[in-house]
Amino acid sequence: MGEVYRGRDPRLGRDVAIKVLPSNASSDPGRLHRFEQEARAAAALNHPNILAVYDVGVYDGVPYIVSELLDGQTLRDRLAGGPLPVRTSIDYAVQIAHGLAAAHEKTIVHRDLKPDNVFVTPDGRVKILDFGLAKLVDQESTGVVSSVLPTSPPGTSPGLVLGTTGYMSPEQVRGAPVDRRTDIFALGVVLYEMLTGRRAFARDTVPETMTAILRDDVPDIQSSAAQVSVPLEQVLRRCLDKDPSRRFQSTQDLAFALSTVGSATTSSAAAAIDSTSSSKRRPGLAMAALGIVALAIGAIAATALRSRPPSATAPLRRLTISLPDTEPLAPASTSPLGLGKISIAVSPDGTRVVYVAIRNGTRQLVVRDLERFESRALRGTEGAYGPFFSPDGTSVGFFSQNALKKVSLLGGDPVTVAEARQARSGMWLPDGSIVFGNFEGSVLLQVPSAGGASRTVATTYYAFQSLAALPVSTHVLVDMRSGANPDLNTIEAVAVGDGTRKVLLGGGTRPAYVDGHLLFMRGGAMFAVPFDVDRLEVIGSPVAVIEGIRTETEGAGQVGVSGDGTLVYVEGTPAWQGTPVLVNRDGKAQPLGAPKQVYGTFALAPDGKRIAFEVVGTTVDIWVYEIGRGTLTRLTQSGLHGAPIWSPDGRQIAYNAVQDGKVAVMARPVDGSGGETQLWSGTLRCVPYSWSPDGNTIAVGCSSDQSGNEDVYLLSVGDKSEPRPFVQTPFSDWGAKFSPDGNWIAYTSDTSGQYEVYVRPFPGPGSQWQISTGGGEEPVWSHDGKEIFYRNGTKWMAVDVKTTSEFSATPPKLLFTGPYVNVPGPSYDVGPDGRFVLIEGPPEAPVTHLNVVLNWFADLRRLVPLAR
After folding, report:
1. What's this model's pTM, rounded to 2 decimal places?
2. In CATH, what number does 579-840 get?
């Protein structure tokens, strides 16, 4: 291609490299064209893993390129001493993938990636050289590059294909059109050589080498000295698939997958160190765990994980992991105030599962290494919920005691990262930061995983239910709550930089991005659809890929999938459908007779004979159920209506409604004698909670997209004036309820760091009294005003109060417990007779095992092929 000289730039005082085309070759149109092509390609790129070009031009008829001068050696020289350590090989491959991704983003395909064209500096920085065979692709084209230029590899005659023998993709060998996936194949070949010290397709002659590329699989990598983990081998073999459609579809995906896998030696060593130290701290722990776990199941798992597939496509394998009786999966109902509903997470490399277990009556994180027989509890994680892995799989983030925490799987106690109030879920971005949903998901925050100040990414009146990472750190996947029925949620991409949102599809929860697909839950099944991560667009229609996954209220599916194709899930059915029941103070329940369906918030009429339900189907509307007659009558029509409350005389129902993108407070006569009346509509988004006994005021919870937090406001009925603040703090204040005499308001606030119930005098001002202890929400007054009831998780509590002259309250007492459905908003009410109305969901069957599917991507690609 050319000759390279060391030069000096006197203006900037730096040494540079000058590449020129020899004079005896500058007259060769083919070589000159390729030289110019390299100049154009390299000049279009600016990336730390690509050789920097400072200048291009022609001097005295001789073309030249001025670039940075590198100190170090080529990867070919580096490999002269044999294979590289596994961690080093992965690091180099990730850097190469990042460099190629930058080139591909500029529509440039290298087409000649090999160890000779990869340079390693003394500090471990990888640089890609020589874009002489690169081809610029028309931005408007389909991304396919035609291989039309002849090439003259050293010592050979000109051929009809472009590239270097031994590193070409099958499509290059055939002379067929190529695209960025040909670089992915070449990177796989280079990675194989780094791991084994052998050339993947080395044969005695060029024709035999080309034939091997077309027909042969690479030799078993386990015959080398390298201790390569199964996930890493699966990534490698996917790069080397003969069919481009079955390879990684982008180098961003490949870099993401490589960054999550590690060597089995390192993982096993770390686990052994941690196991040893744990055994020293608690004698007999390892042996006890070994006795608990079913050895036969563990042996099957270990055998399946260590099997070496002979072909490029690893076989699909299914197995189960029995959970010890002493460490069952924690039911979602035991999470703090129903926040942490996801109980399992899979490490990015697919070698570990962490789950929330009940140990000695307390929630605690337990990790199971799939290549080991025993599970082990993570010290200091008591009370944990919402676990998620770091990108390298060595740490787990979780929430506990109003804090976002992390714990290393290599040992040590948990470390607090940031304050987290009523956090719903979190995720670790590839750049090392953590994004989590605070205040029940109304505020999306980002914080460095090492700790530091949190910054607001986005706020919403609704809620960011669950989060998932993309191969890039610029966006995260979320599902946005739209009502009690999670099947009406929207899957969106949120820009981490400015919080802008893009709706990807409607009707789903629990999104995840793997293998070029967007996954999500809907109706107890996991769906998949091809997804263009660069354009943030789905391609085609979703297809159900896994049925019968246990889903908690709000659509939280108990499922996790790793970057290498390990799928772990819990069998079950959707949990958000329920049946209304009447519950006595001693906890005895009897059905009301209303049908089983998806109910949202609801309220009893003042006389206790009717119930206004938010019923969720294809629409969300208000229905009225008459207890004595057993009739269910529709009040609103075909819209988004919710949060019903009764007027004190029982003749009207107020509710909120979405109109023209705004949330309005409306009212309608129950007997159908009149139409809707708008009580309020504006920039604030307000939810009605309680109507004052005199009928003049409604206590509402209002928020804006700017804050995300809800506060207690008072809305005057009839004059349509702006709601006025009653309780306004930097925290979350909601669920306000008037006392029967109209002189007090009880409400929920997390001023203390957790939800507690408080009382203030109406209309104020006056002192504040805390009613609950140890957590509480959703206060309801008894009809005589002598008690305040509230819910604390699965416990229903009562407090005796006196409201004459001075306010006073007794310590809380437990009435009953029960796994009733915790719908978004008020999830119970109390009638004049003292009985509670609750929604009884399906029984929470104990989880005795986890289902594991290995190499699931093969099945995923069969069911949902990627668009070519």
Report:
1. 0.62
2. 2.120.10.30
